[in-house]
Each structure stands twice: as structure tokens, then as C-alpha cells.
Amino acid sequence: MKRPLRAVVVGTSFGGRVHVPALQAAGFEVVAVVGRDPERTRARARDLGVEHALTSVEEALTLPDIDAVTVSTPPDAHTEPVLAAIAHGKHVLCEKPFALDARDGQAMYDAAVAAGVVHMCCFEFRWRPEEAVAKRAIDGGFLGSVEFATCVQITALVAGGVHQAFNEEWWFDRARGGGILNASGSHYIDRFRMWFGEVEAVSARLQIVGDHSADDAEDTYTMTLRMSSGATAFIQQCSASWGESFRTIRAVGDRGSVWVGRDSSRCPTISRCHPNHPGVPTIPSTRSPSWNCRGSFDWPSAFATRSTPRTRTSRRTSARRRAPRSAMR
């Protein structure tokens, strides 16, 4: 019987809340957590059932049979542990934002490629059911030629100060990689890169609209992107708005649209022109093969109804909840 893959998690805040349980659920043996405060690291390791509580990345990397390292430190502390793990030949998963600047990001990427290790940045929302279904609709031509996409999110995330799930020590410190663009906007940029290819041109503005110091990192941003597919993508996010939260993500093609609303546990809505319109791809009628998430959703049901121009699936994921706020650190 093969032994389980063994991992080290660097960073005990988000790393302890998310990385350790996720690795354990995936069958990894998390053998060590690495933090700055010895007492706090020991307490979190004990609560998580992790054997080693360490304050040195190098010491963790000398433990026997370590296969992978995940890095969930503040953004300004990614480069050193990532490069150390790569130097020891370990596979690496690093939290976003990947680096404070392109130079450090390129250095980590080049080192991983040269070492031949598996390397990835944490953009976990790529695998949420609604994200996968929307991408499949776009890639499969169900929307025709997509020329426009938008993502708007307005929340009170930091309207009254930093949420307790986040690290107040650095979250508003622009020099350390704080701010809503790095914390959350990076996910939205990644979404559109997955859907439409690389960014070819960008126009953007960062703002502080809440009751924060002018020296703080931004709580609001607006950007327009030209994607390599030819689509124009608009992203706007404000995390300092009192009142009800709002979110919508939509891609618009010449044959239909797909969008995801605030309740992201729902599968996306897909609205199309009449199914007999010339140029519209044939809608799959088979339910096999299926794309499944926790045994509760298979994607063909999102495209199976042909009697009306507008189709909305009623199947939902088994977990009736939104993404945890801590998912944005």
C-alpha cells in the first residue's frame, strides 16, 4: 500500500483554516505547520492534528519524505519559502497574490520550471461548479462569439474595519500587498483569463472610498481589460459599501449569455436565442459522460431543455452555502 503524500503548510492563519483541512480531505498527511509565533503555532497544530509545529521553513523541509509545500503567508512573505521549497525539490502551491512584483514572481516561476516540480498559484474558485459550467458553455460555443463580460461586486467587507477572518496587520498595508485588488480582484482577473485568454491591455483605477487613511491600500477598484480572445471585460469591486451586498458575473455572446449572481451556490443561468437559430451548436441530450461535484450536479442538465429560448437548471450543489468570507483572506 502506498503511503499518503506528505505536506508542509507555511502560514497558520488562512493556512490553518483552509489549507490544512483541504489537504487532509484530499488524502494528504500534513506533517508540519510553520508559523512565526511558537506558542500560537503549537496550539494550532494541536487543534488541527498536525504533529510538528515549527517556526523555520528550513527545519520543516528537512523532515523525512516531504512531497509538497503550501505557502499561505502574507503576500510579502511568499518568495523566500517558495524558493526554499523548490530548492529542496518539493512541489509547491502558493497563495495569491503570487508576489509583490513581476520580478519576484518570475524568479519563483523560473526556479520551479528549472527544478521540474509541480507548481501552482491558489485560484481555487476555478473548480467551483458554476465557474466550470460557465467556462464549458463559453468553450463549447453555446454563447457564440463572446465580445463582452462584466463582474461587479459591492460589499461591506471592510466598511467597519477589517473582518476578523483577515489579518489586520497587513491587509490595509499597500507595501505588503494588502488591498481588495490583491485579496479578491486577482480571482476575478483569473476568471476572465480562464474564460477568454490573456490580458492584452488594461485601464484601471484604485480608490479609497471608505473611512480609511489615504495611506492605506485600496478598498475599491475599477478596470477594463482587452482579452486575447477579443472580448472586453469590465471588473469593479467596492468592499466598503454599507448596506446589502451585490454581485453579478456575466459573459455576453451573439448567441446567448451566461451569468452567476450573488448566491454562488446556484448553477449559472444560461439564456440563449431560439435553439433553432442558425449557428447555435446542438445542445447535448445525453447525460453521460457527466461532470460531477460531490455527486449532486452534472452539467448537461444546464443545457438539456430545448422547448424555450431561456434555460435555467434547477440542480444545485449539495452544500447550500456561499463561499466562506475567509476565502478572500
Our Rg estimate from Cα atoms comes to 21 Å
Q: What is the overall pLDDT average?
A: 82
Number of helices: 7
How do the helices and strands follow one another from N- to C-terminus? EHEHEHEHEHEHEHEEEEEEE
The CATH level-2 architecture of the largest domain is identified as 2-Layer Sandwich
CATH class descriptor name of the largest domain: Alpha Beta
How would you write the strand order of the largest sheet?
8-9-10-7-11-12-13-14
Classify the beta-strand content into a percent band: 15-25%
The secondary-structure class comes to: alpha/beta
Low-pLDDT residue intervals, each spanning 5 or more residues: 278-329
CATH level-four homologous superfamily name of the largest domain: Dihydrodipicolinate Reductase, domain 2
Span of the ends, CA to CA = 37 Å
What would your notes on this structure say?
Helices cover 24% and strands 23% of the residues. It is α/β, with parallel strands linked by helices. It folds into two domains: 6-122, 3-Layer(aba) Sandwich (Rossmann fold), CATH 3.40.50; 128-328, Dihydrodipicolinate Reductase, domain 2 (2-Layer Sandwich), CATH 3.30.360.10. The strands form two sheets. An eight-stranded mixed β-sheet has the order 8-9-10-7-11-12-13-14, with helices on one face. A six-stranded parallel β-sheet has the order 3-2-1-4-5-6, sandwiched between helices. Helix 4 packs parallel to helix 5 (102-115). Mean pLDDT is 82; it is low at 278-329.
